[in-house]
Design brief:
Largest sheet: 6 strands, mixed
Number of helices: 8
Radius of gyration: 20 Å
Number of strands: 10
Strand content: 15-25%
CATH class of the largest domain: Alpha Beta
Length: 282
């Protein structure tokens, strides 16, 4: 069993649990899958943080009901955190204890603290969530919060991306897939803002890829066709992307047609490199 820096089984630690396939290279932690593309610019890395599941439809539970439970959970977590801080103990590395978290505990502190943590894990609040609710479901929940432009959630995703090593230490230009609506600033635009604010190496070009014609959202049975996206997307401020290392981000990818259309548009202006990142891969 591999123990993480927090003294837990690494497969149960919300901070250290491997989210990517590890590269057999010391200097790089993760190996992305590659984005399908028939152009010479191959391979294009496609990173993702988690598997996106439509938990609202899957579990037949309204989003506002889940939202209410999670807000109550957050209050309980803050109460636990105060007790840990009072005893001069840092944060537990996971906030939502899905799976058999008790087996992962390796607390050497006093029994009182261990009892408080176990009490948190066994709290009846967790039973209010749908059956089999897991890490990917909670990530899906927060992706919906990001889509709704919840700034605290967006900041948390920005920190996760920074911690993952995807951004790295080299200078990159970040931009995002545009909304299906014309002139709409999405949660991903705000995410680009936050990442660029957190790193001097990341140049913000979130206004460069724009939607010129409204299309139907894919989750509303919109057609997932690269051609439709090519006809409704344009690149502005070409100098921000030309001869730059590009990190193109999106919230969720199913067929990757939007990503591929944006990549095709970006290729035409001769960037140095293109990488893609989606929060959730359906």
């Amino acid at each position: 069993m591999e123990i993480c820096t927090h003294g837990l089984n690494i497969n149960y630690c919300g901070s250290c649990k491997p989210r990517f396939i590890k590269k057999p290279i010391i200097s790089q932690r993760y190996l992305p899958i590659t984005l399908d593309n028939e152009w010479p610019f191959h391979p294009i890395p496609l990173y993702f943080l988690f598997r996106y599941v439509s938990s609202i439809r899957k579990f037949d539970m309204r989003f506002d009901a889940i939202d209410e439970i999670i807000m109550e959970v957050n209050n309980k977590y803050e109460e636990l955190l105060k007790k840990l801080i009072k005893k001069n103990i840092g944060k537990i590395p996971w906030k939502y204890p899905f799976g058999d978290m008790k087996k992962s505990l390796n607390l050497h502190e006093c029994k009182e603290i261990k009892w408080n943590v176990i009490k948190y894990i066994d709290d009846p609040i967790w039973k209010k969530l749908p059956n089999n609710f897991d890490d990917d479901d909670i990530c899906t929940y927060f992706t919906i919060k990001l889509k709704n432009k919840d700034m605290k959630t967006i900041d948390n995703f920005a920190n996760w991306i920074m911690d993952s090593g995807i951004v790295g230490k080299e200078e990159k230009t970040i931009c995002c897939v545009p909304s299906s609506n014309v002139d709409e600033k999405s949660g991903m635009h705000f995410l680009c803002d936050m990442i660029s604010n957190k790193s001097q190496k990341v140049l913000n070009a979130n206004e460069c890829i724009v939607r010129t014609k409204q299309i139907q959202k894919s989750h509303l049975s919109g057609i997932r066709s690269k051609e439709i996206h090519l006809e409704s997307i344009e690149i502005n401020n070409l100098e921000k992307l030309k001869e730059k290392k590009i990190l193109l981000v999106d919230d969720v990818a199913t067929s990757c047609s939007t990503l591929m259309a944006c990549v095709e548009k970006i290729k035409a202006i001769n960037p140095l490199k293109i990488e893609t990142l989606v929060l959730g891969r359906a």
